[in-house]
Queue: 3 jobs
Job 1
Amino acid sequence: MKTLIIDDERLARKELISLLEKHEEVEVVGEAANADEAEALIAEKHPDLIFLDINMPGRDGFELLSALDRPPHVIFVTAYDEHAIRAFQVNALDYVLKPIDPERLDAALAKVPQPSGEDVPQRDILRENDQIFLKDGEKCWFVTLKDVRVFESEGNYVRVRFADQKPLVLRSLNKLEEKLDPLTFFRASRKHIINLRWVDKIEPWFNGGLMVKLKPADKSGAPGESIEVSRRQATRFKELLSL
């Protein structure tokens, strides 16, 4: 399991590397002192797991994750309990507090899904089972793409709708479209990309377009979103769904 250590304290990195030596399944392939170094190393090494300090000079750990299209598994390393709580809010695998307790480290590592053992090349396209990291103000999430119903453009931002959440993130809908699997995520219009797995009903609409109704986000009885498919995209939409 290829692993990176990301921490601005050199001694903290060395201590963690030493503690990991007894874990034969863990291969430390690099270390970084800040987010810029870490981002370059992640692109080069494609780690399965990163140990990530939250407070670092420049960009913090959450900002680093926001910059990654496909973040690895993450165990946060922090000296601050409030950050540990926040780490759980983003559904990280786990966190360990400094100074690191070896038994606590063992427990965190036990939660890491083991890689298949095959050297799978990195894909440019994000599939429905891939995770993305989203940050909106103080709130953060790891989200599996299959759970995202709609990406909606709002100026230079994108509104991401999943479960009962709808964070606004600084991303371009055009750039996002280039990364998403076109067999799952469909560009319905200039403003919307929809997840075809969430389509519930399709109705004819004005000027040759379509109105797509998505499945409800929960069991509360509230209706799902209604998204218009432009006339220009309606033909391709029908082809994708074999209508």
Note: The helical segments are 10-20, 35-45, 61-66, 81-89, 102-110, 173-179, 231-240.
Job 2
Amino acid sequence: MKTIIIDDERLAREELKSMLLKYDFLDIIDEAKNPDEGILKIQEHKPELIFLDIQMPGMNGFEMLQKLDEIPKVIFVTAYDEFALKAFEVNALDYLLKPIDPERLNETLQKLQQPEDEFTTELVGNEARKEKILTNGDKIFIKDGDKCWYIDINTVRMFESDGNYVKVYFDGFRPLILRSLNSLEEKLDSRLFFRANRKYIINLNWISSIENWFNGGLLVTLKEGEKIEISRRQAIRFKDQMSL
């Protein structure tokens, strides 16, 4: 797994590299001493994993991630624990405190070798990470770059996975939010939104027609004309959930 370490402290980078030597599945291909350099190294090498410090000169680790078009798996490494909740909100794999405990590092790296569940992601953290379920009538805040929206959740007709982001479809807009589709699914009311396949979550109230599709799946047409395939596995769940 191609890996880059991004930390403004040279000794911290060296210590982490030495700790990672025993993990044969990791290939430390480069390192960066600041966020700007980190962005260039990520664009150049396209790593699968980065170890990222949070507090660095110029911009912090969260701000650096916002400047990336594609975000690899992220393990935050920092001396400050007040950022833990925010780290999980951007779907980080884990959050390690300096000085790094070898056993804690080993637990984190074991997650990299576990197969990802098809539709759910395990939430790592404490009880504070439990979020309010968004349901009928709730309003949501969306920020994409300099643009902001505060809209009724009912106006969102679907969510589309786009790399490490999710594209939100409402009115004539399609802003991107830094979140995985799996973590978003856990925050949505299943009576209002349905996971159609790996890539899409649809608003059930926006369905205009449904027809049988290949391999036992379904083809849904939304009121704005988008056609979304419900996979065979999810079609079974859909029929069980919606049938009389």
Note: The first helix runs from residue 10 to 20.
Job 3
Amino acid sequence: MSTVQDASNVSSLFGAGASKTAKGSTEETQNRFLSLLVAQMKNQDPLNPLDNAQVTSQMAQLSTVQGIENMNSSLEALVASMGTNQMAQAANLIGRGVLVPGDTLRPNEVEGVMGFDLETPADKVTVTITDAAGATVRTLDLGSREEGINLVAWDGLDDGGDAVPDAAYRFKIEVVTDGKPVATTALHLSMVNSVSQGSQGVQLNLAGQEKASYADIRQIF
């Protein structure tokens, strides 16, 4: 009497079929598995019947594949819903100022406000503002500062007390604690002109053609 492959061979066939139909639907994969299983049961050798444990294991694997696909579909729907909600929330920020990571500022933009985030209290904080050529325009000695988000307003004057041109500037934050320099995150305050949604999620289109992620917002004004 001719026999068909044992349960382990059927598992290999199912694995091959699954790899070829990975892009197909779960229903197609399930039908292929059941067809192989029924054919095997019809043609099994009475002297060497199917191993129930192996058949049960294969069916459990199929259920796992179905569960993973269903979970992926649910997660995709959840992500899409969150993106829609974030887009609606971000739209309410148009025309408002947001504090996001960055080191640029303009003296007439949102009152020249800049910020930084300290993980621990600092003994000394110094802000250095430079122009497009990298030359120092203004140095601000802020003394000691507490942990958390700190804001600094620049009056648009240089170290000599003269008003600087309305242009783009950069600022650098230097923090010292216990005589040692400490890293910190520079924060840039800018107006939100519009919002958009792409592959990286909801983005804020800021003044000066800058962009920031919705998730980067540290403070709203």
Note: The radius of gyration is 31 Å.
